[in-house]
Amino acid sequence: MRTLLVWLAGGLTLAGSSQVALANGWNMPVGVSSLSGEIYGLHMTIFWICVVIGVVVFGAMFYSLFRYRHSKGAKSANFHENTTVEIIWTTIPLLILVGMAVPATATLQKIYDPSDAELDVMVTGQQWRWRYEYLGEDVAFNSNLATPRAQINGEEERGEHYLLEVDEPLVLPINRKVRFLFTSDDVIHAWWVPELAVKQDSIPGFVNENWVRIEEPGIYRGQCAELCGVDHGFMPIVVQAVEEEEFDSWLAERKEAAAEEAMGVDREWGMDELMERGEGVFGSICASCHQPEGQGAPPAFPALAGNEQLIEDADWHIDTVMNGVSGTAMPAFRNTLNPVELASVITYTRNAWGNETGDAIQPSEIAERLEE
Amino acid sequence: MWEVIKSVLAAFLGVQREQQRLKDFERGNPVAFIVTGIVLAAVLVGLIALVAVLAAG
């Protein structure tokens, strides 16, 4: 009996140290959404059930090993079957499993009920960034990694949010039910933000649903959770949860900016403004593969600087950026970038790093080709 | 008949008395067990579906 107590004490020590592990961030977070606390509670309930089973089973085993050891003259029993014991050890796990399935199913039902959402956000994974579209609001943008290349290459000290920072976070209101629609442009990605208790695959050709009602304002970070290519680690997620009024004014501002941008399609753009805009687009969208100086990384990512086909054939160049090249890593950008962004980045790549074609591609021209 | 049902239910759980097992094999005709097994499996599926429908309702 004393030995059993020793084992129980050992088990409790282990259990105690898992409390420490929680504090150290080894465990999943309690989170800030209406369901995340419930999911955490479910996880902990099942964890403790497992701990109790582990302590009892291994306790009984080690106790028996020690108490009835051969050196003390123990003789092994020799019998063939015992129906009562078999029924007991079959029924108990059955009851435990059903007991765990009941609360788990109750929570899953809530997770799978995206009805009555007040805001729909389409989340599209793309190698290697996330695109957010506020459905019905005409607001959409790409969210790119903002960590400087110098930090990644080890030339600079790493910042506080190394690889977990983006140029434009997903802004969401608190206390509103937000429905997410997940899909992908290329390969399978997964949108994962632990604090929101949302982890959902984004699959090309499919639309997955999930929802969240955030209860505390703040910045919540996450990552792509499905290996999706070389820059899988470089497409983080940042969610900025704000008060409802703040969100409404932010959305109104973005809508206005989007409307202004749409008007800009029709006017004639000057070379300088196209180049300036294009440099920004190139930096956030193209440079991760084609490199900041357009030198590329052959053979996977061809050089743009001094690329003869690009310089000679503007039509091919525009088509390549708009529609991508199937069978290669070059995606189609016709749905990711708007006409102004497409025109300016094409103009930029036709005139930067010694590609002096002098071509100024107009947004109106791109808009026409997009409609074909 | 009741004996057959009991044996099939025991098989569902995966535990059976050796005595009962030997007795079952004396019957010589497996058809009763097969038919009972199929019927009870359908009942089990129906029960699970019922629980799922009630839970979702």
Automatic annotation (TrEMBL), chain A:
It is a multi-pass membrane protein. One of its GO terms (cellular component) is plasma membrane. Keywords: Copper, Electron transport, Heme, Iron, Membrane, Metal-binding, Oxidoreductase, Respiratory chain, Signal, Translocase, Transmembrane, Transmembrane helix, Transport. Its main location: membrane. Binds a copper A center. One of its GO terms (biological process) is ATP synthesis coupled electron transport. Residues 116-253 form the Cytochrome oxidase subunit II copper A binding domain. This is Cytochrome c oxidase subunit 2. The gene is coxB.
TrEMBL record, chain B:
The chain crosses the membrane at residues 31-56. InterPro entries: DUF2970. Keywords: Membrane, Transmembrane, Transmembrane helix. The keyword Membrane applies. This is DUF2970 domain-containing protein. It comes from Billgrantia pellis.
